[in-house]
Amino acid sequence: MAQPMNILFLMADQLAPHFLPAYGHRVVKTPRLDEIAANSTIFDAHYSNSPLCVPARAGLLTGQLPSAVDCFDSGCDYEFSVPTFAHYLRANGYVTVQSGKAHYIGADQLHGLEKRLTMDICPADNCWFGFWDDLDRTLDWFHTLKNVVTAGVAPRASQQDHDYDAAHAAERWIYDYARSPDQRPFMLKVSFTHPHDPYVTPQAYWDRYRHDDIDMPVTPFMAPEERDSHGQWLYSHYDRSEYEVTDEHIRTSRHGYYGSIALVDDLIGKGLDALNAARLDENTAIVFTADHGDMLGERGCWYKMSFYERACRVPLMISMPGQKGSRRVSQCTSLMDLMPTLLDMTLDGGTDHLVESIDGRSLMPLMDGDGSGWNDETASEIFFEGARAPGMLIRRGTRKYVHWEGGPCSLFDVAHDPEESNNLVDDPAHAEEVRAFEAEVRQRWRLEELTERILLKQRRNALVFKALMSGEITPLDFQPHDDASKRYYRGYGNWHEAEARDFLRFDS
Of the listed 18, 46, 87, 103, which one is catalytic? Predict the structure, then answer.
């Protein structure tokens, strides 16, 4: 009987595919990701289901649109009883482990994981909630452009500490697993916080690029009055003319971002090397993706939180054991498709194990080269802080339709207009297409009921957070536990047996 397949799930934070060599970038250097790409299926139209950390990760874990589990913003939890891919794998004989960023909100800090190896870099309580009841209020956690004007070299930052910890803990876990008598198949998720801003990087990673080689945005800065309504909202959300951003600031920010991508690539290499050394590589599938992208100065926009391609598209590479060569998938897919895909990859019966219908679809047919039955579409949502009303995206084929409730909408043909400069929504030739998209939005999301759910969740979060911060502060958080009494040799039992157990060696 064949041994069940392991999964090494690698995840970056705020990484658009546009900035990876596997997707055509000519400056960024990622030799270890290039190794993965050389023997994997690469998805060219893969989307985040909400371009913000917490709801994006909720969609990834549950296989649902984030709104289906009431996860609208970075202050939202979702029910502990909602099954994730970690629940399904663990229930069917897998050990499920995570190192690095999880960004779970609320009391359940595992969501099906058997163990988390490190603490989180982000808060686990509901402090980052949206608040549409006061639309003109600038919330204290809103971005500014300070991270753009202060970009550059930093010998050490807390994000680097986090990612070094995540990589080291994962590397050590791989070796511990290889020495352990517990040989259940594993799903190890290693989630980094880079290349998320601030756009700073250590000197060694800065020096991997010549500053003059750093490419500038394709679509230059647009004054607020020149932008569409969504671009104006983004400006009011994190710009507001508080900082004067020069071309040198832009180039320096991109240089720091590219350095952080190289840092992630090196840390990924540590995990790959450990897999190889422990002789686990031949039976381990490797998945690499991100939660959302980064505009990185395009149109004068920064960070995430938009439906522009660099903010809401993410990379996806899946390398199956023994795969030789790469293939590319052009069909539209999204993060919520990964949950059923992992079940299909690992469990007998695959998605037959699902106890409820989900929005995601297994990518296995596309990976096997058969896209004939694939419905070439996906969806994304913006219901978080800063927005004034629901926003939804439907990508179907080459068309991308964006609906803003109460505001101007947009329709782009991203194959012929990848920078989204030609809005077709008011073109009479596309009037029927726009009407069909609008009808679909209203049927799929039921906007009046959805808006009430969002507002109720925000009001609950505002009250609960106020309570948690009143009197003795009692925030929710995750504390990792590493039982030192089980490490190395503690003076009880047989020394020679302990030495044999802790010494990883293969007979030639």
Answer: 103
Q: Find out whether the peptide bond into 195 is cis, omega within 30 degrees of 0.
A: yes
Measured distance CA(154)–CA(143) in Å, rounded:
20
The Cα 465–Cα 299 span in angstroms is 35
Can you tell me the distance from the alpha carbon of 393 to that of 403, in angstroms, rounded to the nearest whole number?
6
Q: What is the pLDDT of residues 46-96, one digit of tens each?
A: 999 999 999 999 999 999 999 999 999 999 999 999 999 999 999 999 999
Q: Return d(Cα 457, Cα 280) in angstroms, integer.
A: 44
| Active-site residue flag, 53 | yes
For residue 381, pLDDT over 60 is answered with: yes
Catalytic status, residue 353: no
* Cβ neighbours of residue 273 closer than 8 Å, sequence gap 6 or more: 171
Nearby residues of 129 by Cβ (< 8 Å), 6 or more positions away: 73, 74, 75, 76, 385, 457, 458, 461, 462, 465
Per residue in 16-49, pLDDT (tens digit) is 999 999 999 999 999 999 999 999 999 999 999 9
Q: Which residues pair with 189 in a beta bridge?
A: 9, 98
DSSP state of 305: S
Active site residue: 46, 53, 196, 249, which one? 53
